[in-house]
């Protein structure tokens, strides 16, 4: 599989003032983004997501490590010609209008006036800003600015889209629109790398995730595999046992919150099944347990933070 | 046209657009024009001197306007883009930081040029109407003012890569003052054996490193009709060379530092 973006052992610290030790943002980050995939960068506040994306765009200079963007060095502007970038909380000169902004950035991307005009009309309708195309962004709400940012990122029909928290500031409808947009990119083969706090969003959109915490990866890979990576099973019951009549289970097993099932590691599966059946409970289904991304995230980030 | 070249023009044009949308730009320009109109009201003894005085005073006003525009734009444009994070939108395009930096500078030059042309035309019209004299030769002084402002804008932009606008304006003002007293004050300090060695050394360093901006001040000569001293083509080439040398030094340094900055 072709790799569109690869990051190896990236280190970055920001100098502090007055002789205090530098602030370490990244300590050995690795990331692979295969062509055609939608990769989610997840992590708590201050984990280093924005720093990573900025390093990819050449906006911050890493202390060490290697970044290859579309087979080129980050310092090579040609790489950026094929990338679209949405910065965190995008901001524009207040007197500018979306149309003027797209014209300006289109020129800097080397597009002709005609193709900018055509693309602008398409993008403004895509992000729902047709009405506001010629209003100064001064009058825009946070969500509208975010939409301008998205249009701006899509301007040059990028092969790789890098989005720093794309759905921040959007209303629920806007979030759904972004999700549909990303879905359509996936179908048309555009590669996407996005950072987000919205675990549910990532779970729905992304096929790969990289969880980072304190500047390091704590987990990365295909979402399906990660969430199924633990060898656990979920035993579902037809109906939960009445209070106080639950059979005694091996210590490794645990009741689910609604008592409608039992989570159990492979080695205890047989013992648990026997105990449940002996107690006269109807087992409806047994299958590999898929964690929610939230559970997985809490487990990984919590463990890292504790250790 | 190559992409690098059109990038310069695009970024520069953005600076012009920006100036056009700022009230402070019109305010400075309008204020200068109003003051130029007030110049003929200066009290003066002899009628013959009045013309020269009026020309000199209005050129002086134009110098101040150019100083303000160059310093303020040079000090605020880059740091404003970094503070507002609009710089990310530009630099995530296939644009080099060098091109971005120089494009911004060229934009400042364009704004300066337009403002100076307006001021020049106003002076020409005023002197023509009031004294019945057509003085196109003033363009020489205006051009020298432009050269000085170009140097100041480059200094301010270099400073603004890492420093806040207020600090940049102070530094550029200091630069302006030191470069104007260079031939006189610094030279005397450097050569006066009565001063401590450290002071003399610093004065000497500044004397040799900094440009003599007083040379770019030909307001008086030109206002007096170049009767004493003619500013010829050779003199102009020298002035141009002086300004260009320092502009290139400051811009190269500024671009170099910007390349290495985390944004
Ligand atoms: N310009 C800067 N100067 C100094 N420190 C910085 C700078 N930018 C980021 N940091 C520090 O680097 C660390 C990582 O920040 P970063 O913005 O990459 O986190 P993030 O994962 O994007 O967080 P969030 O989810 O809040 O956006 C933080 O500790 C932050 O304080
Ligand atoms: Mg961030």
Outline:
The complex is a heterodimer of chains A (307) and B (263). By secondary structure, chain A is α/β, with parallel strands linked by helices.
List keywords for this structure.
heterodimer; A: 307 residues; alpha/beta; Rossmann fold; Alpha-Beta Plaits; 6-stranded mixed sheet; 4-stranded antiparallel sheet; 10 helices; 34% helix; 27% strand; B: 263 residues; mainly alpha; 0% strand; globular; binds adenosine-5'-triphosphate; binds magnesium ion
Describe what this molecule looks like in 3D.
The complex is a heterodimer of chains A (307) and B (263). With 307 residues, chain A is of the alpha/beta class. Chain A folds into two domains: 3-225, 3-Layer(aba) Sandwich (Rossmann fold), CATH 3.40.50.300; 229-305, Alpha-Beta Plaits (2-Layer Sandwich), CATH 3.30.70. Chain A contains ten helices and 14 strands. Chain A has a six-stranded mixed sheet, sandwiched between helices. The radius of gyration of chain A is 24 Å and the shape is elongated. Chain A starts with a strand and ends with a helix. With 263 residues, chain B is an all-alpha fold. Chain B has helices spanning 3-20, 23-38, 47-84, 86-91, 97-131, 138-160, 165-191, 197-209, 219-223, 233-259. In chain B, helix 1 (3-20) packs across helix 5, helix 3 packs parallel to helix 6 (138-160) and helix 6 (138-160) packs across helix 7. The longest helix of chain B has 38 residues, at 47-84. The relative contact order of chain B is 0.14. The interface between A and B is medium-sized, with 29 and 23 residues. The structure holds adenosine-5'-triphosphate and magnesium ion.
